[in-house]
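Example record used in the benchmark description.
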Amino acid sequence: MQIKEMLSKHKKELGIVAGVLAVLVVVGAAVWYLTRPSLASVTEAYLNCLINQDYEGMYALLTPESQSAYDHDTYINRQSNIYGGIEATNMSYTINEVKNGVVSYDLSMDTIAGNLTQSFAMRVEDGKVVYDDSLILNDLGKDDRVRVNTSEAARGEILDRNGNVLAGAGEAYSVGLVPGRLNGESDYARIASVLGIEVSDIETALDASWVQEDSFVPVKELSADQQPIVDTVSAIQGVQVNTISVRTYPYGEATSHVTGYIQAVNQEDLENHAGEGYTENSVIGRTGIEAAYETQLRGQNGAEILIVDADGNTKTTVLQREAVDGADVKLTLDVNLQQRIYEEYQNDESCSVALNPLTGEVLALVSTPSYSSNDFVMGLSQSQWDALNSDPALPMYNRFAATFAPGSTMKAITAAVGLDTGAIDPQTDYEAQMRWQLDSSWGSYYVTTLHAADPNNLRNALVYSDNVYFAKAASRIGGEALANAYDALKFKVQLPFALALNASTYASGDAKLTDAIQIADSGYGQGQILMNPVHLTALYTGFLNEGKVLQPYLVMDEVPESAWIEQAYTAETANTILQDLVEVISDTGGTGHSAYRSDISLAGKTGTAEIKASQNDTTGTELGWFIAMTADPSTSQPIILTTMVEDVKNRGGSGYVVNHNDAILDDYFE
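Model output (structure tokens):
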């Protein structure tokens, strides 16, 4: 009986153990089921890795079977190459449905061919992704490849107001060498000298691994206006010249500071403009209108994303976008006037601004000396680049974008402020003085003038350009009122303009206009006054438009909706000063009389700004200014022409500029 009882007892214990084990198995299965990653969360983890370009993380989420089918390096490289090749950015996804172990979702991304949105179905097993290449792009098989074809959009032209091409497609020359025809190395130095390159450039080009005896080895590109160089170099044995299509600038130096130039993109450009359709073969605007209107001019390149089979046959067109050529940018410039001004001042360090004073249209913007945009397209040698940058005349320096001491051209502005604030009366005689100081606190400092107008009223002070009168006027206005007036006239404010221009200033940094000598000197355009030539020219339009200062504009279809300064001066003040500026030219003793015309009424103002270390400095230089404008609104060819020339000391001062602008206006009106 004991044995039977013992066996029975053991059976019961074994049953209990078995039951417990069964319960544990069931509970374990339930826990695993309840805590396993959801299908949607696995999909989200995979797609989040994709968005962050974490291809390692994606691979870690694949099932063991998928990892066996796609080894690590092959998988990583394929993902990286395809998504990188189509320039996938701005990815996002939406989970649509989870059913029978499959997660359906939409994946959207921007690509080189535009936005691409596709629907996918991802199978998830045991918390892992069952992978095949159709999860990259629909219809993509394991042996298929993704091909991207691009087509460059034609760059838009830059035109003047009459449709003359300032920048557009043109022909140039590619100069190359055919090794088998060369007269050995004896001509290397001669070729290099003619082309402006180094002998080492030739040697490097000919040493390339691909070069054969009959190869054409390009060494230099020349623009169409370098025909004399082409003629010379093509006469050398072994030199071959081919015609190529390039961006060209027909007016060269005359317009380069306006148009700017393009260059081939570099790695930095590709990184800064990622996702914008630039490729290694693209060009980009570097300066001027080419840079400011890059988006409009370059258009939109075409692209197509294809899936091709192992034999290279197109299997699927995933996405396609046609190229859209760039838009033309039509400027308000009159290139004939532009060229004429450039020719007149090409040997000077100068800048000129011409506007239609009744509309604000810019008719000319010239900076001299200049450079040729064509040289940058063709490619500058290091020696050419060094020569441009070391030239003391600074041909790369855009003077119409800079600021300068305006000298006596500032007197009309001071007069307007004085009249509108009531600080001066146009008829009052303020006593003619050849030198003047406010009081003894100025010590040895005096304001001096070459012409002490008598009677010392506003008309005579403008006509004969009396420094002392306007120093007194500025002192009467006072520093605070003068600074407020300058602020209202948009000093320290960048002019809204197609090209970047430096803002005019009247004091250093945030300094206040409190020093009595500085205030007085500001009245006649010295002190710390620095004017941008375009800004200064714009302020003079107010004298022709009853106090309304027009906003200059350079692009034809960007006409400002309103004046830049609606009421810079009262109408009475504007008309008073305009009549005095007419007499600056019409009066036989006026400083601008050399520009007088019997057929057209002109108004104007001369200016000579002294650039020196102290009042007693005799080694300083001078800037010469002249502003001339048609005074009658009914004139058929309205114009205001402002020119500044550096270093006119001992060359006639502002009279040098008056004479040259007179010649320009003769041609313009005739």
